[in-house]
Amino acid sequence: MGNLLFIIALASPVIMILGIAIKFYRISKMPLNLRWEIYPLPHEAEEKRKYGGSYMEEVDWQDKKPERYFMGEIIEPLKEIFYLHRVKKFNPYGIWIWSLALHWGIWLLFLWMGILLINGVFNWEIASKLDFVAYLSYILGILGILGLIIKRVSTHDLKIYTSGIDYFNLLFLLILFTSGLFAIMKDNGTDQFLAYLNGVLNGGVPVHELSTITIVHFVIFELFLIYIPVSRFFHGPVKYSTFHSILWNDMYQIKSSTEEKKISEQLNYKVEWSGPHILSHQTWLENAQNTNLHEKI
């Protein structure tokens, strides 16, 4: 049993990292997405960000290297990650506070696991002094999940768009946070966490020294790591591509560039679906050139 737990503990982060890498590789090979170019863009100069301006307003802009405010592209994602400001601003169903609690529960859970790892690797006695991070993580996670479940069940517009996998994911996280809270609340909860992690670092989990709830919590956490790349939890890592390649990319197309070649290739894709304005089984280019939208040619 101890050897199996040891293997799962080592394999789970490796599988997560490889899974995320494979996902990003596949995304890089996908057809180009339509750019949104919704201004203001965070990488524009401050005076242009105030009113949604663009470098293309400048005289002879094509002959100049566009100035980029790179801190804007760092600050904006951080606001989304740690504050969910788009959810707060645009979601009308009151889920922001619950979603924020859940996300902070997850961030703090990873921080807590990092604290345990540092404690074990460097033999620093910090876990017992920082175990409030674990309590905060588990409590915020549980409150956030319960709030989101209630909102999704009681709000009609949310309920009709919530699928079975959404409820599964929330229940999965609820078990993760609840098991962690019960484990850390034991008299020697932090010591149990350290014993598990030290066992992994030393080549074998001491099963007989650990409580069942501690083992269950770590196994669920490791399954969570494995599940991330193949689940909707992957929306976090993939936001980088969404923001930088779709939302904010306003670079002009250069003759004979890789992007131009991809666009030319995609314009020759066949349209395999139908509609009153679509020429089925013809290329996207032929569809774009068809000005008789209501006449099939």
Automatic annotation (TrEMBL):
Among InterPro entries, the record links this protein to: NarG-like_sf
Locate the transmembrane regions by residue number: 6-25, 95-120, 132-153, 165-185, 205-230
As recorded in UniProt, coiled-coil segments are none
Q: Which UniProt keywords apply?
A: Membrane, Transmembrane, Transmembrane helix
What name goes with this protein? Answer: NarG-like domain-containing protein
